[in-house]
Amino acid sequence: RVGVLVYADVVFNHMANEAHLRRDLQYPRQDVLDQYRQDEQKYQSLKLFGDLSKPLFSEEDFVEAFGIKDWKDKWQVQNGRITGGPTDPGLPTLRVCEHVVEQQRAYLKALKAIGVKGFRIDAAKHMTLEHLKRVWTDDITQDVHIFGEIITDGGATEEEYQLFLEPYLQETRLGAYDFP
Q1: pTM for the whole thing?
Q2: CATH number, residue 47
Q3: Is 2 inside any structural domain?
Q4: Which of 149, 153, 158, 166 does the annotation list as catalytic?
Q5: Average pLDDT for 62-82
Q6: pLDDT score recorded for residue 180
Q7: Is residue 165 part of a domain?
Q8: Max CA pair span of the chain
Q9: What is the mean pLDDT of residues 43-55?
Q10: In 128-170, beta strands by DSSP E
Q11: 122, 153, 158, 166: which is the annotated catalytic residue?
Q12: Is residue 122 annotated as a catalytic residue, yes or no?
């Protein structure tokens, strides 16, 4: 022991853009599940949580695909895909539903069980307050430091601050940081 605390960076609003590999929204994809089956003992020993025999997420766990065009439209930012431009299908956005929330909470509990002492919520402004509140409950937040990444156009008088950061700070007990 040397006094180092571990923080995990958690990405809960979207999954990786694998459109260059496949058309479906199965995570992990089938060839990865096949690898798990081929060396089941190895992967079971490495497993953090979940059932490695089936996908963690599938089509019904994602919202309809569309790229964010108006970054000051809260609904678009929290339901659309982060893309690299008009030809990029973007990062598949997870739906706020019981299955998704259960998996995310199981992941956080498993990380806490191995000693993680804090969490950085990646792209927190892309998560609805409902989603944040369903995931980050008392049993998860107890004894850990949590802060969300909420990038705005800067300053308490700016529109993005009022749309994203202010409600987050007022309606959750989570910390945040911004790069105005």
Answers
A1: 0.92
A2: 3.20.20.80
A3: no
A4: 149
A5: 95
A6: 61
A7: yes
A8: 56
A9: 96
A10: 145-149
A11: 122
A12: yes
